[in-house]
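--- STAGE predict ---
source: upstream dedup step, 1 unique chain passed
mode: sequence only
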Amino acid sequence: MARFLKNKKAKLAAMIAACVCLTFCAVGGVWAYLASQTEPVANTFVPAHVSCAVEENFQNGIKSDVKVRNTGNVDAYVRAVVVATFVSPDGKVLATAPQEGVDYTVTWAGSGWQKSSDGFWYYDYALSPNAISTNLIETASAISAPEGYRLNLQIVASAVQSDPERAVIDAWGITPTDGRLIPQ
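--- STAGE serialize ---
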């Protein structure tokens, strides 16, 4: 009887060893097959890039056709602020700011832009990638400047993605209404 039990234990150990060996061979074979037969998956995700650029003409001391282009790869709302300073030839900025109508004239565009109480001009609708706004400024030119200084009229623009809507709310505190920005 002891011999029978000894053979039974040996048979059981041999069966367990054979099952473990078969499992490793099967897993190894499947792994080798999948590694040699499947194509690598390419990452097709393109991250959002939000940016904009001011486009303008400047000839004979007159700035004209000032617009903003969406240079990003997603739809974006844009805004701009006009910064006027007097600058000397060596780059020094006069502490006194130029006054519109006194030191320079601006012909603002009639549609597409709205000025907010925060001083920014907001374009009404989101611009698709590479799209350009209507004119913010038709023309702007200097009337007078203190001796040794010239007028420097800069347009600084920024953009924020239009989707999700929460992005423009968080960035600028404005809730779009039917896809349109209506600033306070």
